UniProtKB/TrEMBL annotation:
The organism's taxonomic lineage, starting at the top: Bacteria, Bacillati, Bacillota, Bacilli, Bacillales
Name of the molecule in the record: acetate--CoA ligase
UniProt key word Acetylation: yes
UniProt KW Transmembrane helix keyword: no
Catalytic class of the enzyme: ligase
Coiled-coil region: none
EC number, as in UniProt: 6.2.1.1
Annotated GO MF terms: acetate-CoA ligase activity
UniProt-listed InterPro entries: AMP-bd_C, AMP-bd_C_sf, AMP-binding_CS, AMP-dep_synth/lig_dom, ANL_N_sf
Underlying gene: acsA
Keywords of the record: Acetylation, ATP-binding, Ligase, Nucleotide-binding
Residues covered by the AMP-dependent synthetase/ligase domain: 57-411
Every AMP-binding enzyme C-terminal domain range: 470-548
Length: 571
């Protein structure tokens, strides 16, 4: 197959000589950027917020540009510093101490960010939850973490099963409420009387900062535990990958209930002191473009599911807006279909940079950066300071072009430090000095990594291994197809056959001829063995709230099997 190559971006960028940097770089060098390099005592809230608030030239700069359909607000670094101090004082009054778990279950709002940093300032561990979680998902996470304080809104309270949560002592309510009872605390009431000064809790680099629950394909969600040390990598990738500059207006579309929404929706931009756009509510293509236009966004980090919607909306939608402020686009969360990259080049005259990482890895690991040639469909190469490879099940490295487990040499700064209360689960990620991701991929001769699928998703048909991503990418190249989810279905002779679920673009009608045409399109464009033997048109493809296609669920539905944990399924 011919590989398309998109040359490096012209002009200035923060990491100019990737190869040289990879040879020379050590994480020790990066520490010199931080004030704690001398004292050894840290707090993310200080580095991301207070440090800028103490700087006379920076304190009145807009840190947060918040916008939702019914509210718009700007907070400076100084505002955020004071409000998070106030909130830290509220927590302290109710006895929150270093190491306690304090959870947030609410939509993105200015209060969310003040509370989030207030938690970190007390030395407690923050646990952000998606606002759309239902009772079971909330129960699992609050029980497992034994959270003592929850910050939520009155209208989400009915999904908090308090009788099942013996550890939960206080509930802080943001917004008008009529709750009475000793456990309820009114956010705005308490903030009014709280002091704007707070003595931040100085911590060790290895002290806990964040618990992110991620759903496994089976069993209960696991609490991925991150420490303040992660900031070294958030800062480094903010420079190299996000390519942040002082005057940037940065927008990450991810919700902080998902790791992208914290590592890159909170930490990386604010460690660099840039203006950060937060947009609540649901988006349509015109909302996305409208937000970029209105706030003159320069750097945009989003996900393939969003980008695919933009492709479906077509170039006419692009032309309705002035997007001239945009200079850098990145994607994460799912494989980025080559078609989307090619379209982006045409529609925006910009490259879309794919980035690969996981909740467990805490920060970006394999990336495309501005100074690097992009090969559409490839996740790029490991960042300086990180060694990646493809290994077999015993942790032995495989030669180029061979599909296997995508693995990372242990010891990068943002790596999870534990799976909460499950040491055996944590240990199971590591083989022979490698962190094994559970993703299947291969590396080409030039060191580019190519994603194939989650290992559980790889299809074995008539002895050939087929990554569902490849088939999905070919399917959406067909003008009729908007989205596609591909699974392997057990078959007596072939082992598995490929079944594709697709949604159609506006203007296309379901017919046998159309399905056959699409099948032929994959057969001639990809290969005969990769052409789906079965196809089904659906109104939508099931996705997680962070936009990932849930192939596992498609498969369970298809085979009539139990669906397992569906707490992250988008309605
Ligand atoms: C950051 C995040 C992790 C899983 C990961 C992989 C998939 C993420 C990807 C990608 C292909 C990329 N994934 N980035 N697949 N190309 N650039 O998404 O964390 O929610 O834990 O998901 O997402 O399968 O293993 P998380």
């Amino acid at each position: 197959m011919d590989v398309q190559k998109i040359p490096a971006r012209e002009g200035n960028h923060n990491l100019k000589n990737y190869e040289k940097m990879r040879e020379q770089f050590s994480w020790e060098d990066m520490k010199k950027n931080f004030s704690w390099n001398e004292t050894g005592k840290v707090n993310m809230a200080y580095e991301a917020i207070d440090r800028h608030a103490e700087n006379p030239e920076k304190k009145d700069k807009t840190a947060l540009l918040y916008s939702s359909p019914d509210r718009e607000e700007k907070l400076t670094f100084s505002d955020l510093s004071k409000q998070s101090n106030q909130f830290a004082n509220v927590l302290k009054k109710y006895d929150v101490k270093k190491g306690d778990r304090v959870f947030l279950f609410m939509p993105r709002s200015p209060e969310f960010y003040a509370a989030f940093f207030g938690i970190l300032k007390t030395g407690a561990i923050a646990g952000p939850l998606f606002e759309a979680f239902m009772e079971q998902a909330v129960r699992d996470r609050l029980q497992d973490s034994e959270a003592t304080v929850l910050i939520t809104t009155p209208d989400l309270l009915y999904r908090v099963p308090q009788e099942d949560l013996p550890s939960l002592e206080k509930i802080i309510l943001v917004g008008e409420n009529n709750e009475s009872g000793e456990q309820y605390i009114d956010y705005h009431e308490e903030m009014k009387s709280a002091s704007e000064d707070f003595a931040i809790e100085w911590l060790d680099l290895e002290d806990g900062m964040l618990l992110h629950y991620t759903s496994g394909s089976t069993g209960k969600p696991k609490g991925v535990y991150h420490v303040h040390n992660a900031m070294i990598q958030h800062y480094a990738t903010g420079e190299w990958v996000l390519d942040l500059e002082e005057d940037d207006v940065y927008w990450c579309t991810a919700d902080p209930g998902w790791v992208t929404g914290t590592s890159y929706g909170i930490f990386a931009p604010w460690l660099h002191g840039v203006t950060n756009v937060v947009r609540g509510g649901r988006f349509t293509p015109d909302d996305w473009y409208g937000t970029i236009e209105k706030f003159k966004v320069t750097v945009w980090y989003t996900a393939p599911t969003a980008l695919r919607k933009l492709v479906s909306a077509g170039e006419e939608a692009v032309k309705r807006h002035d997007l001239s402020s945009l200079r850098h686009i990145m994607s994460v969360g799912e494989p980025l279909n080559p078609e989307v990259v090619t379209w982006g080049l045409k529609a925006f005259d910009l490259r879309i940079h794919d980035t690969w990482w996981m909740t467990e890895t805490g920060a970006q690991l394999i990336v495309n950066i501005p100074s690097m040639e992009i090969r559409p469909g490839s996740m790029g190469k490991p960042i300086p300071g990180v060694e990646a490879s493809i290994v077999d099940n015993e942790g032995n490295e495989l030669p180029p072009n061979q599909m296997g487990n995508l693995a990372i040499k242990e010891g990068w700064p943002a790596m999870m430090r534990a799976v909460w209360k499950r040491p055996e689960k944590f240990e199971s990620y590591f083989i022979n000095g490698w962190y094994v991701s559970g993703d299947s991929a291969y590396k080409d001769e030039d060191g580019y990594f190519w994603f194939q699928g989650r290992l559980d998703d790889v299809i074995n048909t008539s002895g050939e291994r087929v990554g569902p991503f490849e088939v999905e990418s070919k399917l959406i190249e067909h003008p009729a197809v908007a989205e596609a989810g591909v699974i392997g279905k057990p078959h007596p002779e072939r082992g598995e056959i490929i079944k594709a679920f697709i949604t159609l673009n506006d203007g296309y009608e379901e017919s046998d001829d159309l399905l056959e045409e699409i099948r032929q399109f994959v057969k001639t464009g990809l290969s005969a063995h990769a052409a789906p033997r079965e196809m089904e048109i659906r109104d939508s493809i099931p996705k997680t709230r962070s936009g990932k296609i849930m192939r596992r669920l498609l498969k369970s539905w298809e085979l009539g099997l139990p669906t397992g944990d569906t707490s992250t399924l988008e309605e």
